[in-house]
Amino acid sequence: MAFGLIKYGLSPSYPGKRFLSRQPELKSSYDVVIIGGGGHGLACAYYLAKNHGVKNVAVLEKGYIGGGNTGRNTAIIRSNYLTPEGVAFYDESVRLFQGLSEDLDFNILYTERGHFTLAHTDAAMRTSRWRAEVNKHLGVNSEVVDREDLRKLVPCMNLSEDVRHPVLGALYHPPGSIARHDAVAWGYAGRAAELGVEIHQGTEVTGLEIEGGRITGVVTNRGHVGCGKAMQAVAGLSGVMAAKAGFKLPIRTVPLQACVSMPLKPFLDPIIVSGSLHIYISQGSRGELVMGGSTDPYPRYQTRSTLDFMEGLMAHILELFPFLADVPVLRQWAGMTDMTPDFSPVMGETPVKNYYIDSGWGTWGFKATPVCGKRMAETIATARVPELLQPFRLSRFEEYHLVGEKGAASVGH
Fold first, then answer.
1. CA 381 to CA 265: how far, in whole Å?
2. Rounded to whole angstroms, how far apart are CA atoms 132 and 111?
3. Rg over CA atoms, the chain
4. How many other C-beta atoms can be found within 10 angstroms of the C-beta atom of residue 10?
5. I want to staple 62 with a disulfide (CB 3.0 to 4.6 A). Which of 45, 204, 257, 399 is the partner?
6. How remote is the C-alpha of 185 from its chain's centroid?
């Protein structure tokens, strides 16, 4: 690899082709229009073309590829959820992630680290045991460990009882991993484009055309585009886009903030999460500490970071890792999360015929990228919602068949 880079750098000509072809003009119509060029939208386009032969597809992104929540998350991948529906769904996603670099012929820097959800109270320990039993029943590797086990597995963490929130134990999930979030988006974009999908950046959808209860086209800042089917995957703007289609989503949009430190020598291999303290921390491949906290307590459509978030987050981080007190924080940011009442996503059909939805991801959208793309592509191509997605249908809120994942969201409540 190093020799190849040197040879490429010293060469008078650069044979490398463009990752994406030059952006074409919009056609008058497409079989499928995907609104949103984040990981989910691009993954759906890729699987439509690869698995179902549907290649007359346009992905419309108002900004640039991966510039929304795909580039604003902390790239944690896991399947240790609380409900059987959630565990089964994310377990398929983890398995897809494990082979994704090979599938896309693009290195997404997927690394298995192990994931610890800390418990600071007896109630949290009971929830950990509950989650472990659900996980094991569905074939997902999770187990409860006590404080002595943690001393061996995470020796750098402060496990003293002389702190405000002593650690009693944790839910240990060995398959917990991280990946490069922008690599996932670009990998899907490149392969989808090779298969004939058109990706239009700087193309904002300003309206939807619906006739007889069926989607017939979209209105963009570059003109009108007809379509046979459409899907929205716009994260924090899900409610806004759904309103253009004439229906309301049970979603509120709140910012979720995160930050990274300066790079340090590797010392923290696993991912550490505390549902009680609403924090998580992992060390990236470049040595930086990636840290985040709970969602902001009030709805807003902004990605502004705040001092209040930083102060609260650091107080809890330093309780677990006091030796980080003098480590500078390089940058902080926020993403817009679309939270549902039961802390589970909304996928599948909508009241508008041939208009599909991929929303309600809150604090866990990145880890669902491959499975959501694959299964939403199946839904669109076959006009049938697969069994794996049925629990997450929009109509569940009217039927009161909720999928309560609040206990496993960790930082989202």
1. 47
2. 22
3. 22
4. 7
5. 204
6. 11
Residue type (1 letter), 235: A
CA gap 229, 319 in Å, rounded = 51
* Closest residue by Cα to residue 361 from 351, 346, 373: 346
Q: What is the pLDDT of residues 88-104, one digit of tens each?
A: 999 999 999 999 999 99
Separation of alpha carbons 159 and 151, rounded Å: 7
CA 177 distance to own-chain centroid: 13
Domain(s) labelled CATH 3.30.9.10 in the chain stretch across 112-175+253-339
The SS3 call for residue 81 is coil
* Number of alpha helices (DSSP H) and beta strands (DSSP E) in the chain: 12, 19
Residue 283 is encoded by which pair of tokens?
A: 């060390």
Considering only CA atoms, which of 320, 384, 369 is closest in space to residue 103? Answer: 369
112-175+253-339 maps to CATH 3.90.76.10: no
Phi/psi for 227 (5° steps) reads -155, 150
Q: Is 182 exposed, middle or buried (0-12, 13-18, 19+ CB in 10 A)?
A: middle
Closest to 264 in 3D by CA, of 330, 206, 202:
330
Helices 39-52 and 181-194, axial angle in degrees (round to 10): 40
The segment(s) of the chain belonging to CATH 3.50.50.60 are: 26-73+182-250+342-409
CA–CA dist 142, 401 (Å, integer)? 26
Tally of residues, the chain: 413
- Using the 8-state DSSP alphabet, how is residue 353 labeled? B
Measure the CA–CA gap between 383 and 379, rounded to whole angstroms.
Answer: 5
218-225 contact pairs (CB < 8 A, 24+) = 218/33, 218/35, 218/60, 220/26, 220/60, 221/62, 222/26, 223/26, 225/26, 225/27, 225/28, 225/29, 225/30, 225/33, 225/58, 225/60
- The answer to whether residues 73 and 184 touch, using CB atoms and an 8 Å cutoff, is no
Alpha-carbon distance of 351 to 356, in angstroms, equals: 9
Q: Superfamily for 26-73+182-250+342-409?
A: FAD/NAD(P)-binding domain (3.50.50.60)
**Which stretches does DSSP call E strand in 62-114?**
76-77, 111-112
pLDDT along the chain (413 residues), means of 10: 68 71 89 97 98 98 91 93 96 98 95 96 94 97 97 96 95 97 95 96 97 97 97 96 96 94 96 92 95 89 90 94 96 93 96 98 93 98 97 96 80 49
